[in-house]
Amino acid sequence: MKRRLVLRGGAALVALGLGGFGGWILSLPPAPAAGGAPAIDSREAEALVAVLKPPKRQRPVIAILGINDATETTDYLMPVGILRRGGRGI
Prior knowledge:
The protein is mainly alpha-helical. It has helices at about 1-25, 40-50, 75-85. Among the domains are: about 1-25; about 60-90.
């Protein structure tokens, strides 16, 4: 008796899980229509490439970024010290 109850309960759980999964699959939005991006004018592409070229500098610009919540003073001091020692720092 107890074994049959456990088997029925397990089967019910599996059926509920499969039903929930099927409902979730059916609730997903349809795939977007496959459409290509519009063509870019050659003048616009050349202008974009010209803007993205790096400027001619003697020394490169180096930025050290950090998040206030998750950084310590050493997170800023170590890179600056390494860059100074290598001749690239401030």
